[in-house]
């Protein structure tokens, strides 16, 4: 099997597995989920922090100071703050192979208090080859308002595997990014508006009027009438106790209420590079005909009559099924009968060797013609 055949086989197999998974998802029945998995409490959120610092102690893999002058400036500024004054003649010739300028990022969780530790990510912003084994010097971490909320410092850990043999070496990882576990200490708490007033806003993860109505119904059934009211398709106002202890217990019970969400909007995600197709539920297709190169896709409605058995008391009914025909080169045609679903079309296209570009063009044509009744997202 050559490389092209293997790549096509792997792409077809992957797409077939994804289509099968989509069929199972579409055929399943919605189950109840905890409210904490569907929504969040307004005001209970993370805050992004960022800072600038120096990673020292590198094994000759730091920044090339001739191309990253900000590294030299940072070292000079740091030494001056520590009481070390360098003559101007020596600063222009500094070769700092063991130092790298880095950015430090983390997220400040809700209700974080001074003294709490956070994990931080350290990323090189210069041309350092590696920051493995380096030590991050004390770096203040600021929020969007410019205030310092945490201080980071510690030994940088860069994971990965390396192997060497016969004078050659191979490294599997991105060596310019590392992590420091519990490397930052919170110095300032972010005030929260959770305890103000007798109303708490609940925000759904996705805007959905049906799910919002079901949440209101479930909350009022659990805590009594007029406890919850929907403001729109995302925000639900909840009447909560005023006391902090009672409010925490109330919100804990609120998060564990089981709610059956409504079926989400039909969506098809296509990866144009790999040809992977993911569907969040079964997507049906209307009558259409698409011709693309040597490929043709025709979806027709087919009437059928279902007649009940004798003395059964039923009625004769006319059903409208779909007939899908997909052809490629002359002499190779595949027919599919039954419900016209996108899963069957994608599976049949992969069976006759359609490329990801072919699949992308056909799905776009179906969407433009109004046959694909789903949101098409291409990544």
Give the helix/strand layout.
Blueprint: H1 3-27, E1 33-34, H2 35-38, E2 39-41, E3 47-56, H3 69-81, H4 88-91, E4 99-108, E5 117-124, E6 135-142, E7 148-155, E8 161-165, E9 168-172, E10 177-186, E11 199-204, H5 209-223, E12 228-230, E13 235-239, H6 244-255, E14 258-259, E15 267-270, E16 277-279, E17 288-292, E18 295-306, E19 317-327, E20 333-338, H7 342-351, H8 356-369, E21 375-378
Helix pairs in contact: 1-7
Subcellular location: Bacterial flagellum basal body
Function: Assembles around the rod to form the L-ring and probably protects the motor/basal body from shearing forces during rotation.
Protein name: Flagellar P-ring protein
Q: What report would you give on this structure?
A:
- This protein is of the alpha+beta class.
- The protein has 3 domains: 3-29 and 265-306 and 318-378, no CATH class; 47-159 and 170-186, no CATH class; 193-259.
- It is built from 8 helices and 21 strands.
- It has helices spanning 3-27, 35-38, 69-81, 88-91, 209-223, 244-255, 342-351, 356-369, and strands spanning 33-34, 39-41, 47-56, 99-108, 117-124, 135-142, 148-155, 161-165, 168-172, 177-186, 199-204, 228-230, 235-239, 258-259, 267-270, 277-279, 288-292, 295-306, 317-327, 333-338, 375-378.
- A 6-stranded antiparallel barrel has the order 3-4-5-10-7-6. A 4-stranded antiparallel sheet has the order 2-11-13-12. It has a 4-stranded antiparallel sheet with strand order 17-18-19-20, covered by helices on one side.
- A hairpin with a 2-residue loop joins strand 17 and strand 18 (295-306).
- Helix 1 runs antiparallel to helix 7.
- The longest helix is centred in the N-terminal third of the chain and has 25 residues, at 3-27.
- The chain is flat, with a radius of gyration of 30 Å.
- 25% of the residues are buried.
- Residues 1-32 form the signal peptide.
- Keywords: Bacterial flagellum, Cell projection, Cilium, Flagellum, Signal.
- It is found in: Bacterial flagellum basal body.
- It comes from Herbaspirillum hiltneri N3.
- It holds the Pfam family FlgI.
């Amino acid at each position: 099997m050559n490389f092209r055949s293997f790549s096509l086989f792997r792409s077809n197999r992957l797409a077939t597995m994804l289509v099968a998974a989509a069929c199972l998802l579409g055929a399943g029945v919605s189950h109840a989920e905890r409210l904490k998995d569907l929504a969040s409490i307004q005001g209970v959120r993370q805050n992004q922090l960022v800072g600038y610092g120096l990673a020292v102690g590198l094994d000759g893999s730091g920044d090339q100071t001739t191309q990253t002058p900000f590294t030299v400036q940072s070292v000079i500024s740091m030494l001056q703050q520590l009481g070390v004054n360098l003559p101007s003649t020596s600063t222009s010739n500094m070769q700092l192979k063991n130092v790298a300028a880095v950015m430090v990022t983390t997220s400040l969780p809700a209700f974080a208090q001074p003294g709490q530790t956070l994990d931080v990510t350290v990323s090189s912003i210069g041309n350092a080859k590696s920051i493995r084994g380096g030590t991050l010097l004390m770096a203040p971490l600021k929020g969007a308002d410019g205030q310092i909320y945490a201080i980071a410092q510690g030994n940088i850990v860069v994971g990965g595997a390396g192997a060497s043999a016969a004078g050659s070496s191979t490294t599997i990882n991105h060596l310019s990014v590392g992590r420091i576990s519990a490397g930052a200490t919170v110095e300032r708490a972010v005030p929260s508006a959770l305890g103000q007033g007798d109303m708490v806003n609940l925000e759904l993860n996705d805007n959905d009027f049906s799910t919002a109505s079901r949440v209101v119904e479930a909350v009022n059934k659990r805590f009594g009438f007029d406890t919850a009211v929907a403001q729109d398709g995302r925000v639900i106002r909840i009447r909560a106790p005023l006391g902090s202890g009672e409010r925490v217990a109330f919100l804990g019970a609120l998060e564990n209420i089981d709610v059956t969400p409504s079926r989400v909007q039909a969506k098809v995600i296509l990866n144009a590079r790999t040809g992977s197709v993911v569907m969040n539920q079964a997507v049906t297709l209307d009558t259409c005909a698409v011709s693309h190169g040597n490929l043709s896709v025709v979806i027709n409605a087919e009437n059928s009559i279902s007649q009940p058995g004798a003395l059964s008391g039923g009625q004769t009914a006319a059903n409208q099924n779909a007939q899908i025909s997909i052809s490629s080169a002359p002499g190779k045609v595949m027919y599919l009968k039954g419900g016209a679903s996108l899963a069957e079309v994608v599976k049949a296209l992969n069976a006759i060797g359609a490329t990801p570009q072919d699949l992308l063009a056909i799905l776009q044509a179906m969407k433009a013609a109004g046959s694909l009744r789903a949101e098409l997202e291409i990544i």
